[in-house]
Design brief:
The structure is a homodimer of 346-residue chains. Chain A is of the alpha+beta class and 346 residues long. Chain A contains seven helices and 15 strands. Chain A has two domains: 1-184, 2-Layer Sandwich (HIT family, subunit A); 187-346, 2-Layer Sandwich (HIT family, subunit A). The longest helix of chain A is centred in the C-terminal third of the chain and has 22 residues, at 259-280. Chain A is globular. The two termini of chain A are 39 Å apart.
């Protein structure tokens, strides 16, 4: 949740913590350090040409490099992809892990990791404009960073995600994604894992493999497919044009995915983003990697995938109160529209 | 979730339905009728002087009046508060209720009610500018509409909420709130009810009564109080300055709350909104009524209240993926700041 200028004027001295909400098994990250961060992107398109801390020439203002990756797409740049610690982290790796339950309230010290992946040296590029070859390096960089974070035994899961555009919560315009390592498994992922485990125990099957088979057979919600991946508008789409990118092969551990599969995922993702642009214009979106958390690696029931949500509207009172979403565009209608656009360009 | 102009160009013929998301016990409302609605408020402040369907002179363009309430604050207007059916409903009362589970996917026909409460005849007023006397009539109108909807045995719960400002999902500028009646109890409310029931079974106490007692005793997160209500920044605040308004008396059924209590609630709510304005400027917000659903009326463990969330930031990829929220302002800091502002005006 990005914060406004008004909130920055308050002085904070406390450190980060995770707090459990009253009565529900949902956690919030209280991150006083985040209040001070710059906001280059506001919802009005005024200030996109401000100084950019993520451009290669300004590397001295970001925290030190954690890791870099070369890319044949940017042979002359100092790096193709660069991971740095978030300068305004939600969580830090330094503190000791401690929990403080007291019956009514419960909290955990803010142990975690918060990294930024600068996805290309070029400021103005976007995922849909990048060659799949480069995007596969980005997806591989997520793997490398998760493999490194996995060695910290206090962390139980890592969430990799991308906010593109101010309406999707991005505060800087330079192409980037984020990884947040957590000392717990977040509620939504845990419920999804529980659902997948139950389905597997009841049927002996992976629910996502079943979903892929069903959607490929009926075709109503299938957007496109290639040799190793499919793009589907999910039955219960939360937003218009929500799209899931799923590897055809059953794997729960994202780190076990071979580079050839990441390349197929990258190809289909850039195509979907291009179809979205033609259907919706330049749309803000969130993209989230769903995969097995560290302490469940080896479990047979889950299937990693990407969930992509165009952000054309606002989350409102009904959604906050119910955790339900109102979506005016059934997934069959969205998928048909995108298939039609894909046919026209074929 | 509000939808963009781009989505309206798609033709829809299907009717509303509730669909369960894959693997998680979370539902979405697929509401094709919503795609056609007007959007007066965009995130740029351009079009706020458009034709307003909620002003008394334009009553002929809204669906027929369901109910009206007089108010001494607007003695010359045709009504003080007016309930109409939503012209672009998420759900309708007409269809037969039917469920369609098939193992992988599950859906319910879109039975429900979607009403708009036009909270005052005056276009430009806001909750904080209205006398508490009038706001208590609005809170009473919620009771009256819920009492009426309760007679439809297909409905299991009603969510009453308010979206103020474009960033909070409002699409029209005229002061209004909404009621959505549902054939199920929404996930978040059900989890909260389960948590309250478990706490009650373990301790014999209401968790919210306990929270009020604790916050009044320590004072750290207490914002203000009057004879019948308290305003508290909750321990696990999801956004900066999140505020809960709680009646001091233990009641789960919102309809059993007497008018004197609603007046105290109205007074404290307008004061909080005024403090928010002084702390945050003209801020968008969501306000949500939490109360016992129809089929749990009489249960002893719940305590109705209002949850208010200033919307200074965007819900982003981390929140979508985890159902966790990152908040840079601890509730103790927010409460202290608001108390200080309240002291200055005392």
């Amino acid at each position: 949740m990005a914060n406004s200028v008004a909130e920055r004027s308050l002085s904070h001295n406390s450190s980060s913590s995770l707090r459990k909400r009253l009565l529900v098994d949902e956690w919030v990250v209280i991150a006083p350090d985040r209040a001070a961060r710059p906001r280059q992107l506001e919802l009005s398109p005024s200030s996109s040409d401000d100084f950019c801390p993520f451009c290669p020439d300004n590397a001295q203002v970001t925290p030190p490099t954690i890791e870099t990756w070369d890319s044949p797409v940017f042979p002359d740049a100092p790096w193709g992809v660069r991971a740095v610690a978030n300068k305004f982290p939600a969580l830090r790796v330094e503190p000791e892990l401690s929990t403080e339950p007291d019956g009514l309230y419960e909290s955990i010290s803010g142990v975690g990791a918060h990294e930024v992946l600068i996805e290309a040296p070029e400021h103005h590029t976007r995922w849909r404009a990048l060659p799949a070859e480069h995007l596969a390096i980005v997806l591989g960089a997520w793997q490398d960073r998760m493999a490194d974070l996995r060695r910290d035994k206090r962390l139980r899961s890592v969430l990799a995600f991308k906010n593109h555009g101010a309406r999707a919560g991005a505060t800087l315009g330079h192409i980037h994604s984020q990884l947040i390592g957590l000392p717990l498994v977040p509620t939504r992922l845990r419920r999804e894992l529980d659902g997948a485990r139950d389905y597997f125990q009841n049927t002996g099957l992976c629910a996502i493999c079943e979903m892929i088979a069903r959607e490929r057979s009926t075709g109503d919600r299938l957007i496109l497919e290639n040799e190793a991946a499919v793009a589907i508008a999910p039955f219960g789409s939360r937003t218009a044009f929500e799209t899931w990118i799923l590897p055809r092969s059953h794997r729960g551990d994202y780190l076990s995915s071979p580079r050839s599969e990441l390349l197929s995922i990258a190809e289909i993702t850039t195509t979907v983003l291009d179809l979205w642009r033609r259907a919706l214009g330049e749309v803000a979106y969130n993209l989230i990697l769903h995969c097995l958390p560290f302490d469940l690696l080896g479990e047979p029931y889950y299937h990693w995938h990407l969930e992509m949500l165009p952000r054309t509207g606002q989350v409102a009172g009904f959604e906050w109160g119910s955790n339900m979403y109102i979506n005016a565009t059934p997934s069959e209608v969205a998928a048909r529209h995108l298939r039609k656009l894909a046919d026209h360009s074929a």
